[in-house]
Design brief:
The chain is an alpha/beta fold and 186 residues long. The longest helix has 38 residues.
């Protein structure tokens, strides 16, 4: 009988340790996300070097959840590029939240395009499908597009209809902030 009590104590202690480690990891992710958000040019922060530059990262990329994805600014539509990947821990919280909010990925004239940085198309498709994303998602398996625009995932790049980068956000972005920033695009 005593062994059973001791076993329960050990298991209970293991759960407490696991929850403590999970808490530390989540806190670390939140702190890093906040630091990366500041790097995106928040009020009082230095301006991002990409803002005001012409985007040339891609014209057409293979699609994850549909056919080829064409850069919306080539058709004179402003765009929001959302960068994410299955291996990105904060992306697992951000993408489903944005997917619920964005539906098919149209914010007026602005087109939302996901850019998945997973190396495997099957992993990318599984992640996009499980998140519920219905907007177009392009595959950036070699991360060549991400390498020219963002230092880390998740990130959002806001592009005008003329193909000029208007804003960059590093870290998790709320649906409200995404909509507000996209509303300023022309």
């Amino acid at each position: 009988m005593r062994e059973g009590v001791a076993d329960k104590r050990v298991r209970g202690g293991g759960i407490r340790v696991a929850l403590g480690v999970l808490g530390v990891l989540l806190t670390t992710v939140l702190v890093l996300t906040g630091v990366l958000s500041l790097l995106g040019g928040a009020a009082g922060q230095p301006r991002n070097r990409l803002i005001g530059t012409k985007i040339s990262a891609f014209a057409v990329l293979p699609g994850v959840n549909r056919g080829a994805v064409r850069a919306p600014w080539l058709s004179h539509h402003p765009a929001v590029l959302l960068f994410f990947a299955d291996w990105c821990v904060p992306c697992h919280a951000e993408l489903p939240m944005l997917a619920r909010s964005l539906g098919l990925g149209r914010l007026g004239r602005t087109v939302v395009v996901g850019i998945d940085g997973d190396h495997s198309p099957s992993v990318a498709l599984a992640f996009v499908t499980s998140s519920g994303a219905r907007f177009a998602v392009a595959q950036d398996a070699d991360q060549s597009v991400a390498a020219t625009l963002v230092p880390a995932f998740p990130a959002a790049v806001f592009v005008t209809s003329a193909g000029i980068i208007a804003a960059v956000h590093y870290g998790v972005i709320s649906a409200a902030e995404l909509r507000a920033t996209a509303a300023r695009l022309r």
